[in-house]
């Protein structure tokens, strides 16, 4: 592999890992915020235990989202300075607003939520988790705005050898950004919903204590999964109409369309290969659609089954089916992402900047060093965190550290 | 104005997150037993998320307002930036994971990750600053890199002295020589600000073309960001009185 391939592999592995954890974050944050709202208004101790249990899993997962996100943000300047040089004045604005309006607030308030448990007023504590959830959405919104610009550049002019932003509204309203944002957000909800349903089904199947917690959680998970799967089909369906011609050609693998897309690009940009890799685009799209059908079927069936209390308690085959469903939304998210991003190739900014032109002048040795360093670190951490998530999920609400200590008894002394 | 915005976030990072890095570096000195170490970590626990995010914000400001400099600075110092990122990830994971499983070996391992990651962060910043300030690269940068690293460590001690109690507080005050805890903290903070400003003066700070659009947005957001952070500092203004979630 040449340096460009290594740089792409490095970015893909980082972004792919980030995407998995972030998808679960978006879903779990929402579910935790909703449950905490019920706990705060209703005062039911079961809801409080649910908040702490799902909140603990949310945090383990969130930490991985942060560290992969950090590396991804800096990789743009490290490996892709051709892109930041050329288009940074445009899509860099979306990234800047993402870090300030969304992630800065999200991170600050998350610290407040974790460590402010039993210390903040409970209404303030509830407001904090909602701020965390809504800023997570805002984060996804501005990242998809940046990504949407790369897919379908709008709102800019070319000045000299770089782009300048002329219409921020157009960049934000870009259909390639808006539809994708809703598609990804609802995908995150599906991921969280199946996760909660699957973990709950495990506990119902094993007849662990706290059946009440998991019966309620199972209903929340499935009650969210079914409408979310429907909604996602809507956004995904409309998105198909906004695909670039070359992506559509690769997806349909129609020789005529492929030739047409290639000829059009050659006429505009001169000789070259302008077609995305058909195999990847098709595999990504087909996997996504197949698993969507599986999720729709399971969510629909489960929605009916959960209406019967004896079934929720004792239908073990169904419990196991739900446990097996936990990884499915993750795979679907990844394959949808492969479909979208592989289908954009060979462009970094569609029709404006090729991926090969977007790279930094980095030596092969440097690229190998960073690839090995990031991969080794993340491989270990992903393994540890996945094990930890599974362990915490299996152990149930009894073993949760989050929020389990009353505020410090000794009289605190101000340090500043 | 673009430069002031960048300076605000970079200097904020150095002073606030610099203290977390320093406490991590001094963890084996401050905390001599697992229980002590957990209490030392509680000194930075509520703040570290809100502190490290200043660097994320600074990188966002670079990407939006100084896209050329972002590329030059990052890929021009490729191995150092990669090391810095890996150290940052390792330090954070140490903090997140140490308390998640009971067991002395697990906690000792992740405490080690916190210390190694913090030293890695401090030395990477030192190497980066040695390049920007003195133009020194490669192994020769190791010596000048120790100066900012020592500064981070000292800054961490002064912050720990403000946050901890009893023996831990006395240990943290070892370098202050009887001066007030607040005064030493202000001194190390000022030193970090000076280093940051000097480094900034050496960089080609030429804003890109997004300023007219982006600067008003950032200026509107700033009071809210500062208010959010102030709420955190106010909530956790008391000295550490026991272990935290981490």
Automatic annotation (TrEMBL), chain A:
Where it mainly occurs, coarsely classed, is membrane
Q: Where in the cell is it found?
A: Cell inner membrane
Q: From the record, give the transmembrane residue ranges.
A: 12-35, 56-78, 90-115, 127-150, 180-205, 217-238, 286-308, 320-339, 369-390
The UniProt record lists the keyword Protease? no
Listed GO CC annotations: cytochrome complex; plasma membrane
**Membrane topology category:** Multi-pass membrane protein
Q: Which GO terms describe its biological process?
A: aerobic electron transport chain
This protein's UniProt keywords: Cell inner membrane, Cell membrane, Electron transport, Heme, Iron, Membrane, Metal-binding, Transmembrane, Transmembrane helix, Transport
MF terms per GO, please? electron transfer activity; heme binding; metal ion binding; oxidoreductase activity, acting on diphenols and related substances as donors, oxygen as acceptor
Q: What family does the database annotate?
A: Belongs to the cytochrome ubiquinol oxidase subunit 1 family.
Q: What is this protein called?
A: Cytochrome d ubiquinol oxidase subunit I
Q: What is the lineage of its organism?
A: Bacteria, Bacillati, Actinomycetota, Actinomycetes, Streptosporangiales
Automatic annotation (TrEMBL), chain B:
State any single GO MF term: oxidoreductase activity, acting on diphenols and related substances as donors, oxygen as acceptor
Task: Please report the record's description of how this protein sits within the membrane.
Answer: Multi-pass membrane protein
Which coarse location class describes where this protein primarily resides? membrane
InterPro entries, alphabetically?
Cyt-d_oxidase_su2
A Pfam family annotated for this chain is Cyt_bd_oxida_II
> Where is it located?
Cell membrane
Query: Keyword Transport on this protein?
Result: no
- Segments passing through the bilayer: 6-30, 42-66, 78-97, 109-134, 140-162, 182-201, 213-236
Q: Which UniProt keywords apply?
A: Cell membrane, Membrane, Transmembrane, Transmembrane helix
Gene Ontology cellular component annotations, sorted alphabetically = cytochrome complex; plasma membrane
Q: Which GO terms describe its biological process?
A: aerobic electron transport chain
The similarity comment for this entry is: Belongs to the cytochrome ubiquinol oxidase subunit 2 family.
Q: What is this protein called?
A: Cytochrome bd-I ubiquinol oxidase subunit 2 apoprotein
